[in-house]
Amino acid sequence: MAIFLTENSKVIVQGITGSEGTKHTARMLKSGTNVVGGVNPRKAGTKVEIEGQSLPVFATVAEAIAETGADVSVIFVPPKFAKDAVLEAIDAEIGLAVVITEGIPVHDSAYFWAHAVATGHKTRIIGPNCPGLISPGKSNAGIIPADITGPGKIGLVSKSGTLTYQMMYELRDIGFSSAVGIGGDPIIGTTHIDALAAFEADPETELIVMIGEIGGDAEERAAAYIKEHVTKPVVGYVAGFTAPEGKTMGHAGAIVSGSAGTAQAKKEALEAAGVKVGKTPSETAALARELFTARG
């Protein structure tokens, strides 16, 4: 099984004709993703040749859905145009919008997220500033390398793109049902809690790995959710144990003030909810392997 993205997902790429869109569409196609077309109003009616496939380019997301039955859009649009691209996907009621773009102004993210909520949550947003998601062996929507792991029984949700890749590689012998990179901006669509709920409901996911990072209180809220609602074993890692207080570290959301938002505070909240937390990514992977093996 997989969450959010399956072998039946039909994917379009907003910004397919740009350099990043073209490059990552090729990678998605190589990994077996069913990419059915792209969107670029200026090149509507043309076709792009990628990985031996001739993909139609549409003027709008709504037109792409009508013609192809697409239910996922991966958005590779420059930051200043990203808000309009996401709003277009929401208005077309596509089921899943994966916003890869980094550097989208926070007020733009707040605007399109509020629009998604106001229109009935018909579009799940993943990101922005994220690597996307992969259900190994089935589909890959975004920029996650497809060849570092295979299908298996672990569900992974992570704020960090790089740590997503590392965890997938370290646990490649077990494999993953799905890995979801939710992004580290202050305002994101899909949260740790959303992914935890989906993995809890997925019969094929036996263990969950959750990667957070300093700043904000998302991990503390996830810990409270795990305590109340998650029956499967959860292993966690929080990036930023060595970060100095009061500094912005990496992602825009990683701001620490006082003890709130520190890696230690998050670790303690997760451990209080029964989550085993590693001090390094490799230690976290070892904890996950140990727990998985113990389950037989």
Automatic annotation (TrEMBL):
Alphabetized Pfam families for the sequence: CoA_binding, Ligase_CoA
Catalytic activity: succinate + ATP + CoA = succinyl-CoA + ADP + phosphate; GTP + succinate + CoA = succinyl-CoA + GDP + phosphate
InterPro entries: Cit_synth/succinyl-CoA_lig_AS, Citrt_syn/SCS-alpha_CS, CoA-bd, CoA_lig_alpha, NAD(P)-bd_dom_sf, SUCC_ACL_C, Succinyl-CoA_synth-like
A GO MF term: succinate-CoA ligase (GDP-forming) activity
Keywords, sorted A to Z: Ligase, Nucleotide-binding, Tricarboxylic acid cycle
Annotated CoA-binding domain residues: 4-104
PROSITE patterns tied to this protein: SUCCINYL_COA_LIG_1 (PS01216), SUCCINYL_COA_LIG_2 (PS00399)
GO cellular component labels: cytosol; succinate-CoA ligase complex (ADP-forming)
Family under the similarity heading: Belongs to the succinate/malate CoA ligase alpha subunit family.
EC number: 6.2.1.5
GO biological process: tricarboxylic acid cycle
Domain of life: Bacteria
Pathway(s) annotated for this protein in UniProt: Carbohydrate metabolism; tricarboxylic acid cycle; succinate from succinyl-CoA (ligase route): step 1/1
HAMAP family registered for this protein in UniProt: Succ_CoA_alpha
Record function comment: Succinyl-CoA synthetase functions in the citric acid cycle (TCA), coupling the hydrolysis of succinyl-CoA to the synthesis of either ATP or GTP and thus represents the only step of substrate-level phosphorylation in the TCA. The alpha subunit of the enzyme binds the substrates coenzyme A and phosphate, while succinate binding and nucleotide specificity is provided by the beta subunit.
Active site: H251 (tele-phosphohistidine intermediate)
Binding sites annotated in the UniProt record for substrate: Y165
Binding positions (CoA): T17, G18, S19, E20, K43, I100, T101, E102
Subunit comment: Heterotetramer of two alpha and two beta subunits.
This protein's name: Succinate--CoA ligase [ADP-forming] subunit alpha
